[in-house]
Design brief:
- The structure is a single chain.
- The protein is an alpha/beta fold.
- It folds into four domains: about 220 residues, Class II aldolase/adducin N-terminal domain (L-fuculose-1-phosphate Aldolase), CATH 3.40.225; about 160 residues, Class II aldolase/adducin N-terminal domain (L-fuculose-1-phosphate Aldolase); about 200 residues, Rossmann fold (3-Layer(aba) Sandwich); about 35 residues, no CATH class.
- It has a seven-stranded mixed β-sheet with strand order 3-2-1-4-7-6-5. A seven-stranded parallel β-sheet has the order 14-13-12-15-16-17-18, with helices on both faces. The protein has a four-stranded mixed β-sheet with strand order 8-11-10-9.
Length: about 650
Amino acid sequence: MQSRWNDTEAANFTSDPVALRAYTSRLLGQEPALVQHGGGNTSVKVDKQNLFGETESILFVKGSGWDLATIQPQGFAPVNMETLLRMARLEHLSDSDMVRAQRAAMTNPSAPTPSVEAILHAIIPFQFVDHTHSDAVVTLTNTPTGEEDARALFGDKVLILPYVMPGFVLARQVYTHTRDLNWRQYEAVVLLNHGIFTFHDQARTAYENMIRLVSKAEEFLRVRGVMVNRTGAAPKAVKPVQLAEMRRRLSEAMGAPVLLRLDMGPEALGFADWQDVATISARGTVTPDHVIHIKPKPLIIASDFAAALENFTQDYRAYFEANATDGMTELDPCPRWAVWPGHGCLSIARSAKNLRIVEDISSHTRRCMQWGEALGGWKPVAESELFAVEYWELEQAKLKVMGGTAPVLQGKVALVTGAASGIGKAIAFELKRQGACVAGLDLNPGVVEILAGDGGIGVVCDVTSEASVNAALEKVVAHFGGVDILVSNAGTFPPGKTIEEMSEHDWTQILNVNLSGHWRVMKAAIPLLKLGFEPTIVVIGSKNVAAPGPGASAYSTAKAGLTQLARVAALELAPFGVRVNTLHPDAVFDTGIWSEEVIAGRAKHYGLSVEHYKKKNLLKTEVTSKNVADLVAAMVGPGFAKTTGAQIPIDGGNDRVI
């Protein structure tokens, strides 16, 4: 492991300890083998003058919800040091009371909630404190001889402490163990089965101590030949409908729609085909903190997925009953990751962000389990310790606070065609804003970049090709697990030509895109929608269906046929709970087909100003792509749960349609 410290970059922050703290925190967070999503925390102690001119010692500690890889100065919570040190001297303190007291001691009430390890950071009497869950260090200590090996490896300058639960209990353990010690003789603390703290009055030294000590642990594992990950090749083929069926059953276990992602890479496949994977992976997580994200163990998928899932949920309920105390609320029994021999590993989550977290943590878990088993046997903390973290009073309190606050479309997967521009792009962004994961299909390669990131994927697709559509659907399902929402929007609006002027090629091409293209996508998506969660289709039609105009014969015919296709689909799919409704926009001018010149020309044709032409409807209002997107989002949501086969205009009121 190499130091990422850069003198030129660091010089930009040396005048501000909190900015410098953020800089070295990002250096730590950029090392995947040090800090996984949400893991680790850092702090800096700074003397500040308060409102009354008095000097106070303030601990700026990483705030809840901030990722070390991207943290900025505002991501640190300022907490009064005196209060934290007084709390450390208490014999007993519940973690809920600790969090409440820490927030009350903040000098900026709008800052994020301080880390639950704020007291521990305060106890360590150095200006900069760094804490990570290093793969190498935790793997080393998750073995039968872990403590002995750690003491031999790190020597007298590293304090080795047994595992206790994070929060006040951990802070109290460190306080009682070190109050009579000379901290200056140490450069780090290793908490068995948990992680490592380094510290110094210089930010660079604290950071580079972490790099150096973790490198020692990595070298220890490397010399023993254990840092080897099994790999596999040529995974078995997976049909999209198989993943969609799995996702449906997992959603039922969760009680809400989930996202599912299949990793068929060499390492995932090698782990899945490990002969002892079922036994070893059931022993526990890399560090107990991870149980919140991935539960105590993965689902092992046998030939009968339904039976395997039922066994998992029964085991989870037995685990809860064996460890629960009065007043605890049982969490859902749905697994968060799964091992599928011959295919790879699955990640399972309610949101795109959490799916990324599960992917990250489970991939590190796979490596550490293999290293630990080769080193002497994978032996993490006991089941009761995992349960204590998963059902921590702070986590239970979150359930009460967060109940019912999820975005309305969270966990749902939406497929939007023609998503690179205009109405399709607006729809994709609005569905994503409301919590859905969105797969955008478009002939334009720019769709990949437009929808890249958490909760989005862009796929280049030609809706006039059945092979292209099927390949796109396979990619979408591998990425998100299924489809719940189809917004069939892709189309083309050709220059006006009379029937007499139109060539057979133009006629055929316009119908191929604007009618047959929708049929191809719908046909490919229907088997997946039947397995979806509250599945629905919204077809983007046109005002021309009810009120066609001259020069648009092929376009109007295609949209009329598309509307009829949607009506038939509503009849055919109702028995499967799939809703199908059609939206008819008109005069949506903020799209690519309406340049300023075209709008000006049409306005002149009608003898109107551009402003009046844009509002040439009964309500005298302009219809935008965002307005269409808002209505689509409503139609796929609970407000339209009892509606199918409907045709809804969004045109400001057209006297010809009415």
